[in-house]
Each structure stands twice: as structure tokens, then as C-alpha cells.
Amino acid sequence: MKRIYIKERRSWIVLFLCLQILLLFIAYVDPAMSVQSMLYGNLLSVLIFIVFLLARYQKETLFFKSLDERDTELDVSSVASPNSPFEEIVEHHMTRQIEQLKLELTQNQQQVAEEKDELLAWIHEVKTPLTAMKLMIDRVQDEELKGRLTYEWLRIHLLLDQQLHQKRLPVMENDLYIEKTSLEQILFEEIKTLQSWCIQKGIGFDVELEVDEVLSDAKWLAFLIRQLLSNAVKYSEASDIVITSTKRENQTLVTIEDSGCGIDPKDLPRIFEKGFTSTLKHRDHAATGMGLYLVKKIAKQLLIKIDVHSTVGKGTTVTLLFPKSNAFIDLSNM
């Protein structure tokens, strides 16, 4: 620290010494001036100058000594210019701050990972009593009570399923297994899951599949269709939901059309945003705004293009355009 302090003030220390030498030279060449008196004056000046240096050293280095005890961010611009010798001190403390931030980031990432694992474990644990609950509900004799209980059970099941897939989404690409998948099997399994809810609301399904097999991941595709069907049932009254599949230019096209309340035109550009809920159903506190957000994210990984058309009061049509058979091969070679 002392060496840096002296080095920083080297120029005006040299100036002071040069002035003292100049005064001695003047006293030497000028007979009217006493060299001894000038030496005495120079000695006093040097002593005063040394005292001044020591006093300024204590004051000016106090801030830098305090940096060792500080954990907050250091403002480099208020300490020294980039070419200043104090840059070494600043660099040292900035390095300490960066290392500390890296350590905190690592700890936070570990904590988030642990919380995610705990949540996933909790969801799997909850599914066990939920399955047992469904078996007990099936034994209820009162059909009206059975229907209401099944509906509430289904709500819990869908929310847990949504949360489970939301937590798995960041590592979805590691969980993909692309294969020929039966649309009919997935659709009828999902419709069967929603059966009690549909019966309660008087909703039926009209399924016409010209194309059955698509190239996709069965598990993630099932979740995607589950979200779209549950949305269609949720926002529809007694009517039929029409599901069709066709072939267009070597690509499979699947449409899900309902006759529900529809989507406001100003909401359409935002329906896939995280947390967005319809302005038409803004008082629906059960809506999480996560369903279509997850659908969009999953569809992107599965190379499925989604198109939504809707008319308020008439219904909504969701179109899924599946990729060509060689799309996944091209993707794997990138």
C-alpha cells in the first residue's frame, strides 16, 4: 500500500525536491543569500513535507483498507481510473465479488434443483392416495354425489398433472422418444379421463380420423391433447366437440373444434403467454394461465405448429400441423 501511495505521488514529490535543490543553487550563486540559512529552511520544509505525506497517507488509504471488510458491490468509477495504480486493488476486490456471486449462484441453483426434486417426489406421492380416492368414488352408489366427487377429483388430477409436466419441461428434450403414435388411442384415453366431466356438462365428442398414426412422443403429445380437450370442455356448454385428422402435403392435420364461449380477438395474440387468462372469463379464479403456455412450449419441441381461430359466442378451432416424417431426422443432424 505504501509503495503504491508513493508511486501515485511520484511526480509532485520530484517537483518538491527539484524546488529545494533550485533554492540551494540560488543561495550558492547569490552572495546576498546565506547557504546555511537556506539549508535550514530546506530541512524544515522537508520535515513539514514528510509530516504532510504521512497525514495524507492515513486519510487517503482509509477507504481502501475498509474495502477488506465490505461485502457489497464496489463502484470502480469512484475509486480510480483504468490506468491508475489503484486498479490492482479494485481488480482484487472485484474478483472477490465475482467469486462470491458465483458461489451464491451455485448454491441457489442447487437449492432450486432440490426444491424441484422434492416437488416432483411430492406429486408422485400424492398420486397414490388420489388413485385410491378414485377407486372409492367408483363405489359410491349415489350417482349425483359420485358425479360431483369425480369432477373435483378430476380437477385435482389435472392440476397435479400440469404441475408435473411444467417442472419437467426444462429437461423435456432429454425425455423425448419419437415414434409412430396412434392418435385414436391417445384421444380415446383422454376422452375417457374427461368422461364424468363431459357427462355432467352434457358434452359429447365427434371423432373422425382419416389419419391415425403420427410421428411424435406419445407421453408429451397426450399431455398436449389433454390440455386442449380440457380447455374445450371447460369453456363449452351442452354441445359436441369435433375432432378430425386429415392429410395435407404429406403432413397430418388435426383439428379440435368446440362450440364454447370463444376467445376475444384482442386476446388471441396473448393466449400462449405465461399466466395470461381470458378477459371474457377474467373472474374465473380457477384459471392458472399455464395450460396453453405449456401447450406452446411442448408443441415447439415436438415440431408441431399450432393455429387458433375463434369467434366470440360461437366457439374455437385449434389446428395442429404435425411435421413431415423426415423433420426429426433433419433436426438430429443439426
TrEMBL record:
Histidine kinase domain segment(s): 121-326
A Pfam family that the UniProt record links to this protein: HATPase_c
Alphabetical list of PROSITE patterns matching this protein: HIS_KIN (PS50109)
Primary residence: membrane
Keyword presence, Nucleotide-binding: yes
EC number: 2.7.13.3
Membrane-spanning residues: 12-29, 35-55
Membrane topology: Multi-pass membrane protein
UniProt subcellular location: Cell membrane
Keywords on record: ATP-binding, Cell membrane, Kinase, Membrane, Nucleotide-binding, Transferase, Transmembrane, Transmembrane helix, Two-component regulatory system
GO cellular component: plasma membrane
UniProt catalytic activity: ATP + protein L-histidine = ADP + protein N-phospho-L-histidine
One term of GO molecular function: ATP binding
GO biological process, one term: cellular response to phosphate starvation
Protein name per Swiss-Prot or TrEMBL: histidine kinase
Taxonomic lineage: Bacteria, Bacillati, Bacillota, Bacilli, Bacillales
